[in-house]
From TrEMBL:
This is Substrate-binding domain-containing protein. It comes from the Bacteria. InterPro entries: DeoR_HTH, LacI/GalR-like_sensor, Peripla_BP_I, Tscrpt_reg_HTH_DeoR_CS, WH-like_DNA-bd_sf, WH_DNA-bd_sf. SUPFAM superfamilies: Periplasmic binding protein-like I, Winged helix' DNA-binding domain. Coiled coil: none annotated. Keywords: DNA-binding, Transcription, Transcription regulation. Residues 8-63 form the HTH deoR-type domain. Residues 344-353 have a biased composition (Basic and acidic residues). Residues 343-368 are annotated as: Disordered.
Length: 386
């Protein structure tokens, strides 16, 4: 299995993220981080500089002065927006996983809608407060539609889903699935097939000769799907899952103890490979394994899930990469179609149902539930067994 090259839009989103992270970046650095040639980086930079997203400096690029915005700030309305509709976007985090989803949404909304971003959490009440502020119950101007990533487990989450479905405006869920109403009808959504992603990781480990494997997860909305996909493929291929542990996240004070327990059990069970969700925990496990004298991948192969920073580990980690930018872009596309907005020659206009209108747009459009496939990026941490 070979490493797949990112799509141009995804690659440019990652390029922008890298420049934002460091303030400025050289072509050589971007080429290494993105895994593409300097020629490709220069071509991308030229396009981003031309559109005003980046500013050219000697040997690289930087964010234009005054362009950086504080996390969670609303997207400023550009003058002369031609009465574009307003989309509210509520995400649970602004510092991991979701920034690339936000960039994908922002790119798709450009020229079609104004995007207002609010950061919430994984708390139902916080999500409700942020949505309420956007829809106008507190005297705000209101939005025309919503993109939301709400909690999905527990009775409070079910109640939140009913409330979202009852709002008098279209709602599209991102990386979530909820049903509401007396017939439990699904809300519109764009989500990653995380079970497919973890199953792909299991197939990769089997292909590399591993038979005794382990799964390490921390509790997230994706955990259930990741576990089900990994175990389904392990059962299909006859892999022995000798380790299945749920840990606290790296940021928790209990992580050091959980990580030590994972490595102790790898030794005790003879596990030769792990799938670890997510990158941060995977990198920390590799570091602690190396401190114990375990060689990665010779003694323990590691595959991370998320591919936010996996490429920067030593060794670089093989990782499952969800299509984060495509999630945001797809959610905007669903919502603008629902609002009856169509693109023509790079411009966006409301579809009035007249001649030439889009029959797949508007309020009568069937509910769409889009599932996108992640892909595996193969790096040094999962070399074949000797």
């Amino acid at each position: 299995m070979t490493e797949e090259a990112p799509l141009p839009s995804e690659r440019r989103a990652r390029l922008i993220a890298r420049v934002r992270e460091t303030g400025s970046a050289r072509v050589s650095d971007l080429s290494r981080v993105l895994g593409v040639t300097p020629v490709t980086v220069r071509r991308d930079l030229a396009l981003l500089v031309a559109e005003g997203t980046l500013e050219k400096v000697h040997g690289g690029a930087r964010i234009p002065a005054g362009a950086a915005r504080s996390a969670g700030a609303a997207e400023p309305e550009e003058s002369g927006d031609g009465g574009l509709p307003t989309i509210g976007m509520v995400v649970p985090s602004l510092d991991y996983y979701w920034p690339e989803v936000i960039r994908g949404a922002r790119g798709a909304a450009h020229g079609a809608a104004r995007l207002i971003l609010r950061g919430a959490s994984y708390d139902v009440d916080q999500v409700r407060r942020q949505v309420t502020a956007l829809v106008g119950d507190d005297g705000a101007p209101g939005v025309d539609g919503l993109l939301v990533a709400p909690p999905v487990e527990g009775p409070d989450a079910t109640e939140l889903g009913e409330w979202l479905a009852g709002l008098n405006l279209p709602v599209v869920l991102m990386e979530r699935r909820l049903a509401a109403g007396r017939y439990r009808e699904p809300l519109e959504s764009v989500a990653t097939d995380h079970a497919l992603g973890s199953g792909t990781a299991a197939r990769h480990l089997a292909e590399r000769g591993h038979r005794r494997v382990g799964l390490v997860t921390s509790r997230t909305p994706h955990t259930t799907a990741i576990r089900s996909g990994f175990f389904a493929v392990a059962d299909e291929l006859g892999l022995d899952v000798v380790l299945d542990l749920q840990t606290v996240p790296l940021s928790d004070a209990g992580w050091a103890g959980d990580a030590a327990s994972v490595l102790d059990k790898c030794t005790a069970t003879g596990a030769t490979a792990l799938l670890v969700h997510s990158d941060r925990e995977a990198i920390s496990l590799v570091e602690q394994a190396q401190e114990r004298g375990m060689r990665v991948p010779a003694d323990l192969a590691v595959v991370a899930y998320d591919d936010e920073v996996a490429a920067l580990a030593d060794p670089p980690l093989t990782a499952v990469r969800p299509p984060r930018a495509a999630i945001g872009a797809g959610a905007v596309e669903l919502l603008t179609r629902r609002l009856g907005i169509t693109r023509a020659d790079g411009e966006s206009t409301r579809d009035d149902g007249g001649a030439g209108s889009d029959p797949a747009a508007g309020a009568d459009r069937p509910v769409h539930r889009i599932e996108l496939s992640p892909h595996l990026v193969v790096r040094a941490s999962s070399a074949a067994r000797a």
